[in-house]
Specification:
By secondary structure, the protein is an alpha+beta fold. The protein is 29% helix and 37% strand. It is globular.
């Protein structure tokens, strides 16, 4: 009976031990100097939206396009679905370029590894009018990043829960 109680105590203790998170280096050869998956995806998010925020320039819109797979699916709760990079970029050019700026809400980004594929980025972003500087809209987002042949591309985007920006933002 005492042995049974010891086993229960050990199992109970193990249940509360932290499980290490996976990182981008988990898929690299041992000893490879790579940033963590979170840092990689955070840097990608910053890069893709730097080009988005400057997409009134044709060169920046083209650079922005380079972050997306040609068959990207973009699901927007108020705008509908686009099934290709070309359609997504047409909407971006029509509705966003030269009109709005996207900002990631500080501390909202979460990153989850996808085994043998890449990562999921999840967070909240706000949109600011370029002419007035007012940040009046917010939304939640999910982006699926595929890592293949040393290149990261977005394959799926969900932008949903569009709402007025919170007070003080």
């Amino acid at each position: 009976m005492n042995r049974f109680l010891v086993v229960i105590a050990v199992v109970s203790t193990l249940a509360f031990l932290p499980i290490p998170a996976a990182s981008a280096s988990d898929s690299k050869p041992a000893g490879a100097a790579t940033p963590t998956l979170f840092t990689t995806v955070a840097e990608l998010d910053e890069a893709v939206f730097t080009t988005f925020n400057q997409c009134a320039s044709a060169a920046q819109l083209e650079k922005h396009a380079g972050y997306f797979a040609t068959d990207v699916e973009f699901y927007h709760d108020t705008g509908g679905v686009t099934w290709t990079r070309e359609a997504m970029l047409a909407n971006t050019a029509k509705y966003a370029c030269g009109k709005i700026r996207r900002e990631l809400v500080a501390g909202s980004l979460k990153v989850f590894p996808i085994k043998d594929h890449g990562a999921i980025a999840q967070g909240v972003h706000r949109f600011c009018q370029l002419d007035s500087g007012k940040c009046e809209g917010m939304a939640d987002f999910v982006m699926v990043w595929r890592h293949q042949d040393d290149q990261w591309l977005v394959t799926r985007v969900l932008s949903y829960g569009h709402r007025p920006a919170s007070t003080g933002t």
